[in-house]
Structure formats: structure tokens, C-alpha cells
């Protein structure tokens, strides 16, 4: 009986890495939005990232999530 | 070339199975989004339905696993496939009636294997492929998805615990719309392909397609539409079980669970592993429940589901075997099986009306954190 351990292992490792990375990136983006809102409210007394930096962090994180999603679908559809 | 009546009957039955697969599995994509109110129930099932149709066009790797190699296509006939489908549909309807998220895929494989063993003998089943492509992924995939969801949930809560709660909640609610949509797409890719595989197998066994052929376009289209329609109808009973009875899911957990599910399903579909989307999504929800400190997870429900999972393949195989034996007696036997299938389906539907679960009452379950006894 031939069991495709290599393929099973590959699916496991790739899924684990991509799944965790996507959620962490999205959480970072959410933290960026939260920081932006606090900066706009002015409640941080100069602490925190400031509006522009927070927005940039959030934007970069969400863009990265979108890129991973589009690239994954591209790989699958192109096969 | 004339297409015999039995081939048409099998195609229709296969599409009926695809439809039950859709409404059995709407919950996989949308249960947590409906439970956290990230999406209104009816909008959620409509989005899932459309994305299932789109997903059906993404890949044919899983369809090839089923049509080439699971059973010996030289030894089976359309009647055998018909009997297998009967086993799969009946098991899907019974588990839906009791609200259990059992695997449509395992029901399908079980039905086919049972029918093939009775009609053509055990050596017509490629048990090596069954272990490698079905049983092992079935054991690994829910644990893997659960682990991913657990790690992702834990990290998310640690990272966001000092952020503005309202912003976090709103952001992840939006994120859930995306992640749930991706699961629906992945479901269309993975599960519509299983029916495509069966119809292709039928056409090969009837000599209409050459061995090793892939699914024709009309097969891909009709399977996509059937599973999309089934998804849109919505299996509210199972949505309630997954969204409300396992754990009290918050948006961050829902997002982590759905992302874990989508990743595992898409990666596996890409390599032709016919895994159960239901088991993956259920594993993710348990993982996401366990990843949040203080969240209560109803592990008793996990026990019930595990029993249903283990039973699914043999139970569908038994029904498939009986159906194959009866249908093998001749045209009258085949007609008898069809009549029993229609009568049983109607009966299960009528029974479900006594205690309906719909878009309107799907979230009306007392919160687990209030009802559960303070068991650790």
C-alpha cells in the first residue's frame, strides 16, 4: 500500500504556516486600526503610533492578507 | 450512441446528492458568521451559494481521485453507482434531521464502497487509495485545522487584548465576511468535485467517456449549480449545532476558525485529497473555542460527533450494499430502490417539519456560558 506521506506532510506544514500567518497579519491590521482610532481621539498623550503610521501599518497588513488570498486562488485555479 | 435510462437516473441522483451535500454543509462556511451576527442568516446562505458555484470551477483534482482509482471502473456499472448514491443521500438526510455535521464525502465514499463490494466483490475496491486518500486525511485534517485555529485564536487574543475592543470587534466582523466567503469557495471546490467525480465515473463505466477522462463542462456546471442551490436552501439545523452548541463563538474566534478551515481545504483540494470539509470546519471551531481562555467548549458534543463520523462510512456502506443487492435483481429491483429512496426522503422531510429550524430561529439557543454547568 502506497501512502503519500510527503504530500500529506506538505499540506500540513503549508496549511499551518499560511493559516497562522494570515490570522496574525489580520490581527496586526486590526491593532493598527485600533491605534489609529485612539490617535484620532487624542487619548494617548503622545504614546502610540500616531494617525499616519497606524493607518500605514493597518493598510500594509490588510494588503498582505489580500495578496496571500489572491495568490492562493491563482495557484489552485492555474493547476 | 444512445444514453441509457439508468445513466440518466444516476446523473439525476448524483445531482440530488450534490444538493443534499450543499444544504448539509452550508454550516461549514457560515455557522460562526451567523452565530456572531457578522452576516444576516439569509445573506450568508445566498453568498455561500453563489461562491459554491464559483468554487466548482476552480479545480478538478479531487474529481480525478474519485473517477480514477477509488474503485475499479472496469468492474462496476451505473446501477452500482446508483445504489451507492442512495446510501449516501439517506445517511445525509438522517444526520441532517438530528443536526449532526457528519461528512457528506464519507457518506458518498461509504455508499460507493458498500455497493461495489456487493456487486463486484471486495477486490474491486482499491483499499490502498481508500486509506491514503480518504481515511488518513480524515483523521489528520480535523486535528490539523483545530490546531491552526487554536494557535491563531490564542495569538489573536494575546495580541489584541490591549486594543480598543470596539474597533477589534468591528474589524474582525468584517474579516469574518471574507473568511467565511473563502470557506464557501473552498467548499465548492472540494465538494462539488466529488459529485463531478461520481458522474464522470458513471459516464466512464457506461462507455460514454474514455477511462482516465476528466469531467466534461456540463458536468462541472450542473454540479456547481446543484451544490449552490442546496447551500442557498440552508441546513439550519446543522448551522445551529456548529454555531451555537459547541462554544460561544466571538468574531475573532470565528475568523481564526474560518481561516484555518479555508487553508486546509484549499491546500488539500489542490493535491487531490478528498477530505471532509465538515470535519475540517468542525475541528476548527473546537480549536477556536479552546484557544480563548475562559471560553467553554462542549466536549460532550464532540463525543457525539466523533461517533457519527466513525459510523458514517460503514452506515452509508451498509445502505449502499443493500441497495446494490436489491437493484442487482433487475430493473424492478432498481425501481424499488428508487421508490424507497423517494419515500424515505419525503418521510424525513415531513418529520423535520415537526420541529423546524429556520433562518428566523437559528440563533435562538441559550448561550452556552449561561446554561452549562460550571464543569471545568
UniProtKB/TrEMBL annotation, chain A:
Entry's transmembrane regions: 6-28, 49-77
Origin superkingdom: Bacteria
Keywords: Membrane, Transmembrane, Transmembrane helix
Stated name of the protein: DUF4190 domain-containing protein
UniProtKB/TrEMBL annotation, chain B:
Key words of the record: Membrane, Phosphate transport, Transmembrane, Transmembrane helix, Transport
Superkingdom per UniProt: Bacteria
A family per Pfam: PHO4
Keyword Membrane set for record: yes
Keyword Transport tagged: yes
Primary location recorded for the protein, binned into one broad class: membrane
Membrane-spanning intervals of the chain: 40-58, 79-98, 104-122, 134-157, 217-239, 306-325, 332-351
Lipid bilayer topology: Multi-pass membrane protein
InterPro entries linked: Phos_transporter
Annotated localization: Membrane
Protein family: Belongs to the inorganic phosphate transporter (PiT) (TC 2.A.20) family.
PANTHER family recorded: LOW-AFFINITY INORGANIC PHOSPHATE TRANSPORTER-RELATED (PTHR11101:SF54), PHOSPHATE TRANSPORTER (PTHR11101)
Stated name of the protein: Phosphate transporter
Organism, as annotated: Actinomycetospora endophytica
Taxonomic lineage: Bacteria, Bacillati, Actinomycetota, Actinomycetes, Pseudonocardiales
Amino acid at each position: 500500500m502506497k501512502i503519500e506521506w510527503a504530500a500529506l506532510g506538505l499540506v500540513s506544514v503549508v496549511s499551518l504556516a499560511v493559516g497562522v500567518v494570515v490570522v496574525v497579519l489580520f490581527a496586526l491590521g486590526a491593532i493598527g486600526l485600533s491605534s489609529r482610532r485612539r490617535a484620532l481621539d487624542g487619548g494617548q498623550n503622545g504614546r502610540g503610533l500616531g494617525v499616519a503610521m497606524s493607518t500605514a501599518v493597518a493598510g500594509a497588513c490588510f494588503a498582505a492578507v489580500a495578496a496571500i488570498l489572491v495568490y492562493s486562488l491563482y495557484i489552485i485555479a492555474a493547476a | 450512441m444512445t444514453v441509457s435510462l439508468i445513466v440518466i437516473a444516476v446523473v439525476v441522483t448524483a445531482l440530488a446528492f450534490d444538493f443534499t451535500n450543499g444544504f448539509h454543509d452550508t454550516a461549514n462556511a457560515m455557522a460562526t458568521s451567523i452565530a456572531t451576527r457578522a452576516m444576516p442568516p439569509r445573506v450568508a446562505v445566498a453568498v455561500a451559494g453563489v461562491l459554491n458555484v464559483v468554487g466548482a470551477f476552480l479545480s478538478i483534482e479531487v474529481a480525478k481521485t474519485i473517477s480514477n482509482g477509488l474503485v475499479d471502473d472496469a468492474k462496476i456499472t451505473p446501477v452500482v453507482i446508483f445504489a451507492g448514491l442512495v446510501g449516501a443521500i439517506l445517511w445525509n438526510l438522517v444526520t441532517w434531521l438530528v443536526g449532526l455535521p457528519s461528512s457528506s464525502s464519507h457518506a458518498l465514499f461509504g455508499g460507493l464502497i458498500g455497493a461495489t463490494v456487493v456487486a463486484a466483490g471486495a477486490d474491486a475496491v482499491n483499499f490502498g487509495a481508500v486509506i491514503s486518500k480518504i481515511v488518513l486525511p480524515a483523521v489528520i485534517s480535523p486535528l490539523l485545522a483545530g490546531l491552526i485555529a487554536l494557535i491563531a485564536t490564542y495569538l489573536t487574543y494575546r495580541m489584541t487584548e490591549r486594543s480598543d475592543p470596539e474597533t477589534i470587534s468591528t474589524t474582525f466582523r468584517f474579516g469574518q465576511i471574507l473568511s467565511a466567503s473563502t470557506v464557501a469557495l473552498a467548499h465548492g471546490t472540494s465538494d462539488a468535485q466529488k459529485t463531478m467525480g461520481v458522474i464522470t465515473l458513471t459516464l466512464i463505466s457506461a462507455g460514454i467517456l474514455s477511462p482516465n477522462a476528466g469531467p466534461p463542462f456540463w458536468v462541472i456546471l450542473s454540479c456547481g449549480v446543484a451544490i449552490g442551490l442546496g447551500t442557498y436552501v440552508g441546513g439550519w439545523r446543522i448551522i445551529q449545532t456548529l454555531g451555537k452548541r459547541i462554544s460561544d463563538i466571538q468574531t475573532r474566534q470565528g475568523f481564526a476558525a474560518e481561516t484555518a478551515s479555508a487553508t486546509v481545504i484549499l491546500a488539500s483540494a489542490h493535491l487531490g485529497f478528498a477530505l471532509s470539509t465538515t470535519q475540517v470546519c468542525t475541528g476548527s471551531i473546537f480549536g477556536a473555542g479552546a484557544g480563548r481562555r475562559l471560553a467553554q467548549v462542549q466536549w460532550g458534543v464532540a463525543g457525539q460527533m466523533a461517533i457519527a463520523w466513525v459510523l458514517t462510512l460503514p452506515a452509508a456502506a451498509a445502505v449502499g450494499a443493500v441497495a446494490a443487492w436489491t437493484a442487482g435483481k433487475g430493473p424492478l429491483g432498481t425501481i424499488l430502490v428508487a421508490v424507497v429512496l423517494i419515500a424515505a426522503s419525503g418521510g424525513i422531510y415531513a418529520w423535520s417539519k415537526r420541529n423546524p429550524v429556520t433562518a428566523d430561529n437559528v440563533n435562538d439557543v441559550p448561550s452556552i456560558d449561561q446554561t452549562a454547568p460550571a464543569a471545568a
